[in-house]
Amino acid sequence: MSFSDKLQNNILQNQSLLFVGLDPNPEMMPACYESEDVITGLWNWLQFIITETVDFVCAYKPTLGFYEALGVPGLELLHQTLAAVPKHIPIILDAKHSDLNTSTIFARTVFTQWQVDAITLSPYTGQDHVVPFLVYPDKAVFILCCTSNPGAETLQQYPTNESPLYLQVVKESKNWGTPEQLGLEVGTTNPEVLALIRAVAPERFIMARSIWAQDSKFKQILEAGLNTNGDGLLIPVPQDMLSSTNLSDEIQSLRSEINQVRTEIIRDASTCSVWLPDICFLNQHPQHDLILQLYDVGCIMFGSFVQASGAVFPYYIDLRKIISNPQVFNQVLSAYEKILKNLDFDRLAGIPYGSLPTATGLALRLQCPMIFPRKEVKAHGTRRVIEGNFHPGETVAVVDDILISGKSVMEGAEKLKSAGLNVNDIVVLIDHEQGVQEKLIKNGYRGHAVFTISEITNTLYQAGRINEEQFLAFVED
Ligand SMILES: O=c1ccn([C@@H]2O[C@H](COP(=O)(O)O)[C@@H](O)[C@H]2O)c(=O)[nH]1
């Protein structure tokens, strides 16, 4: 089961957003666990913490540094601790080891050998460092955006309070992975910081840290960090609570306090007057997750965009970005593949430039030869209109990214036909609708699309990715 599913299940089952640090810190160990052997004492304490909290938390977070500091016995203690956590509860390993040259091997160790579900990472080595962790589709990362460390302020607030670096980290890291795989770690006692981050990342899980200052504005922190569903925020159990002999009772009362705020947020959200579009909330689109991921990696943008025809649309689709996100690219290929498997053809053709990577990926997957019609014919060399080998009389399935007017794909198909090839089927990811399919039919082609633009906007609106204004701009277009 994926990290995201495990987390959601536990939040529901235990009705809790609380997570507990499993940190063998000898300085914090209660006196009653002291023994000749510090490891034994720490182990007894950790077992007590797990037993007392297991029904009231959504995740555990061991900090690797505390185990490493205990040497080899410390690493053995880590394995014992990981094994003591019931399998259905996700483990987030706090291990901000951000060295590019170790990330691949470290990701393999923590995810396949130690079997943790998620890990915290520092952002400074950039996406290159994070990708080796994201290639494990069932695992997740939490990117450190902000800490409450006073000494970090000059960096985090740089260059201005209006546009601080920590918000840039949030914006940038959102492009690295989907909400299911990439969350944010935010250490702050300031609700305003949390509110700014939540506004930029409404769809992300935020793991709050260091919120328990002496004069903690706990309620304001919850209100700032929770999303509009009263969810999306992981809240740490205060460290001193873990030394209490009444741990189970104390954690339950903290959970109730949090759930009270969550209920208020949900109640407030449901009483405001919302215009309900004509969409069914029960029938999720079969490609629901893919649509959200395409949006989250920046392939689907809402705004005012001029098209090649001069028309202004309330959205722009840039599928060229997919190639930089291997896991999304893979899913896109699978979606095309499902359609192509039911069609008859000898060769695949991609329309340059945007669809060449997709056609190449599909040709490899389907073990089918590929060709492509050139966009512009070279004035030198072979002067070929079509690249790749083919035999006149063969049938070609044409692959493109999006159908707006159908002009570019039909121009490509005509070049193939003028070389003696047959083109019956055109397969795209997105159909803009508004009569383009009928236009294809009139010209002798069958059009197939993974999803239509209205399926995309409905899904994004239902999932809260776009607001009512953006949704209406599309509906009214
Ligand atoms: O949101 C958009 C709109 C268009 N494109 C590019 O245009 C062609 C499709 O336009 P036609 O009018 O059907 O020729 C598509 O292949 C893209 O290259 C886009 O990327 N995003």
Could you walk me through the main structural features you see in this protein, from its secondary elements to its overall organization?
- The protein is built from 18 helices and 16 strands.
- By secondary structure, it is of the alpha/beta class.
- It has two domains: 3-268, Alpha-Beta Barrel (TIM Barrel), CATH 3.20.20.70; 288-476, Rossmann fold, CATH 3.40.50.
- An eight-stranded parallel beta sheet has the order 2-1-8-7-6-5-4-3.
- It is elongated.
- It binds ligand LLZGTKA7.
- The site of ligand LLZGTKA7 has 15 residues, from strand 10, strand 14 and helix 15.
CATH class of the largest domain: Alpha Beta
Mean pLDDT: 92
Helix/strand-derived class?
alpha/beta
Radius of gyration: 26 Å
What is the number of beta strands?
A: 16
What is the CATH homology-level superfamily of the largest domain? Aldolase class I
Total count of domains:
2
Which small-molecule species are bound to the chains here? the ligand O=c1ccn([C@@H]2O[C@H](COP(=O)(O)O)[C@@H](O)[C@H]2O)c(=O)[nH]1
Give a quick account of the main beta sheet: strands, pairing sense, barrel closure.
8 strands, parallel
What is the topology, as strand order, of the major beta sheet? 2-1-8-7-6-5-4-3
Number of helices: 18
Q: Tell me the CATH architecture of the largest domain.
A: Alpha-Beta Barrel
Tell me the CATH topology of the largest domain: TIM Barrel
Global geometry? elongated
Distance between the termini: 41 Å
Low-confidence stretches: 271-281
